[in-house]
């Protein structure tokens, strides 16, 4: 303290001298508020005020803007709070001692810049063995892969005791910990990213079975090697904190290190299901389709048009006015790096605005020309060819982009993923049979390759999933009764199962035997993963505690047979306001249905929570501050009474979720949302153009790479879609086309309402599949 006092009292005269009443620092009137102490702790509140007065240390060495009593009083401030925190054994005293060292360093730099000699401090601030240890560690060229404290070479290291944190984020963290410690069937999701300060981080979320989301960790991964081992260490820390046996699934994208990390986690804990992020995988399929040579020209045109409109405010303002006057509700969308299916949405916005583009370029008073792309919007062969190619691109990428948006719902489950895959394949099959836009055979074969490879990666190449997607589809009573299963003989009558409960009789269709076999084996694998004699079953799975492994397997077989045959109690109707998880929770209360757990419908097959957290990151926030803000926001947004929301069809997406009105319902003079109507002004000759010559094309960098499919795709079948279990599913069923269709299609009459059909009673022999 004496050394700093001496330095500040003798700063060079080149620094302006300020009176105490006009000082910018005013440390002689230093004070912290009680609210700051509650939010940041005493040391944190003092450090925050020092940052406000002196600036952040991480932006470089501190520079003094003035000298005088207002600055010299900082010594009294540091001495007062350092002494108080040291007497109470508060470990956060190191924050203020760091400020003391930084201020001394700043004063020495000031003397050095002014060529004024100064004396070196002779105390604990001199370089010691600890500083030598830091310098030695900085010389290494290999980044560490762990944050665990393995060994300590610093002779002055002392482990500080923990203290009670009174901040709001800390209180909410305790409430979250208490809530999650009492929850079962949790899902852990994770993803990597960077903040605007170019610091890398990994976000880890924990979701409950009713889809309450909590950000558990925003891990600052700076100066560390982002290997699978490091990510596995992070996942194990979070999962073990709340109990590994309380988790049922893990979900993330298929980036190399992340893919290996969740595979290692599932191998170590076999009861955890491996759920690859379905939205991310569908987006990769869209990217592969966009790299086909067939769409290279039209995508280049889309990029060029959007680049011109983004750089020319004159053209964009007139375009916004015209498309609002024409009743077009949506505007142009740019191509981005982060939005899933971005090419489809950008192309769709151009197709919807074709009439507005044509009006724009054909108005002689505006004198607007979109470079070489003007001919795409004027009557002629180039316009018709461009519209045809644009329709081809939308027809190919549309089902996948729509499927991504459907799967971004909060209550999506594994059966929805398989259902959306079926809907995508059904849409493609119908489009390929009609072939309205004259697609080449080679293009359709490439689409088959991409689709089959996508599904193989999701299901067939990930053994830890235990065919969870098909199992969930079979175990959803809605799809068990859906009219999508085909018979081998097209003239045969659809078989149904008749079951009686009291005086009521119900008729149910049944899934094909191949899907039943797959689901039965999958349930047995999951039961085996939950039954381990080396672990106390009361902790791992309380519902199986009273049974031996053989008894549990026998009850599973009996109950699965009863479910497939729709016997009591599995013939209960599922209401529209409840999902499969609520249905199974109600069924599990029956003593004859206590083995078929709700695990498969509690698992979340997407990791959208991590993507949403990445969007909340701002430039100035540190990783720790951001994590506290996310926790507080998620806790206050938690509503335990939230009603289950079923999977929404594509044509109902905007009205159900976004609350938008149809374009036909808009008045002709009504502008598009967010845009003020303009009065078109004639183009003035000689005015400066704001088009921006030589501007980069608007779009993602991945579009600039080589086009065509990699050789790995050509190992899959190319003449048909080969989804596991769909060989006995009728992809032409209207029930599947309802999901992605723009207009409703008439459904076939149920067999229970047709009086002239002969009812065949089918008793499915499930023993051969279990």
Automatic annotation (TrEMBL):
InterPro entries: DUF659, RNaseH-like_sf. Residues 185-304 form the DUF659 domain. Pfam families: DUF659. Residues 662-701 are annotated as: Disordered. Transmembrane segments: none annotated. This is DUF659 domain-containing protein. It comes from Scleroderma citrinum Foug A.
